[in-house]
Design a protein that fits this description.
Structural class of chain A: mainly beta
Helix content of chain B: 55-70%
Oligomer: heterodimer
Strand content of chain A: over 45%
Number of helices of chain B: 2
Number of domains of chain B: 1
Distance between the termini of chain A: 14 Å
Radius of gyration of chain A: 15 Å
Shape of chain A: globular
Shape of chain B: elongated
Number of domains of chain A: 1
Helix content of chain A: under 10%
Order of helices and strands of chain A: EEEEEEEEEEEE
Order of helices and strands of chain B: EEHH
Strand order of the largest sheet of chain A: 1-12-3-8-9-10-5-6
Number of strands of chain A: 12
Radius of gyration of chain B: 25 Å
Largest interface: A-B, 34 and 29 residues
Structural class of chain B: alpha+beta
CATH topology of chain A: Jelly Rolls
Strand content of chain B: 15-25%
Distance between the termini of chain B: 53 Å
Chain lengths: 166, 74
């Protein structure tokens, strides 16, 4: 990884699982933020939702999805990705999801890209790419990842990196 | 009780916190909304694939070759 990437915090989920993972008091000293996620979920939803500063409003996204048989798209008023491995996928296999947030501390609206693969060994998985927007002037100080309807299970992990332009 | 992990980036401390009633209600509403949206997406994708297959079959019945049909769809 480029030397301008700095690990801010990393978390691994314990045996109790977690309905969501929240990074708070994010330092405002970087240019961009990157989250690398490896997630397995306790229910049949493949969805991971992302929220900023604890708010579920002023979010929008368009998602492109390939599931092994069709390619489709989804428009949403949430910031959404097919980014967790659901319970009906192969057990103990984790998703790979990358979330990139440029200019997170600026005063303009925040654009977001999410690249995710929910893995299902031997059969179809879900590949998704999300272009998202948070229409807000506030700097991002908190990021929440939400497992839709269930818990992120033990050994799931998320790492938050700060990226500087120099 | 469902919990969330809260990571304080200024201290590096991770805390396990129980969800509030409001958070639980929101979580249930989000899950229900997703189930509806996912069913709609699947139905739309299935209908689109069926329409495409039907169109291809009709073009073939008109005498178009496989290559000509592919050229139209490209």
């Amino acid at each position: 990884m480029a030397n301008t990437y700095t690990l801010i915090q990393s978390v691994t989920v314990g045996s109790a699982g977690a309905a969501s993972i929240e990074f708070g008091s994010i330092p405002q000293t970087y240019t961009d933020l990157l989250l690398l996620c490896s997630l397995d979920q306790s229910n049949s939803s493949v969805i991971a939702d992302i929220q900023f500063n604890g708010l579920s409003t002023n979010l929008s996204s368009r998602l492109l999805l390939g599931n092994g048989s069709t390619a489709s798209s989804v428009t949403s008023t949430a910031l959404r990705s097919y980014g967790t491995n659901p319970s009906d996928f192969t057990a103990s296999i984790f998703s790979s999801m990358t979330i990139y947030i440029p200019n997170y501390s600026g005063s303009t609206n925040k654009s977001v890209s999410i690249d995710a693969v929910a893995e299902n060994n031997g059969t179809s998985g879900f590949c998704s790419f999300t272009a998202g927007l948070w229409s807000a002037s506030a700097a991002i100080t908190q990021i929440t990842l939400i497992a839709n309807g269930g818990n992120v299970v033990q050994h799931s992990s998320v790492s938050l990196y700060g990226i500087k332009n120099s | 009780m469902a919990t969330k992990l809260v990571v304080d980036c200024s201290t590096g401390v991770t805390t396990e916190v129980e969800l509030t009633a409001e958070e639980i209600a929101q979580r249930e509403a989000d899950a229900a909304a997703w189930a509806v949206a996912e069913a709609e997406r699947e139905a739309e994708a299935t209908a689109k694939a069926a329409s495409k297959a039907s169109a291809v079959a009709k073009l073939a019945a008109l005498g178009l070759t496989e290559g000509e049909v592919a050229a139209i769809l490209a």
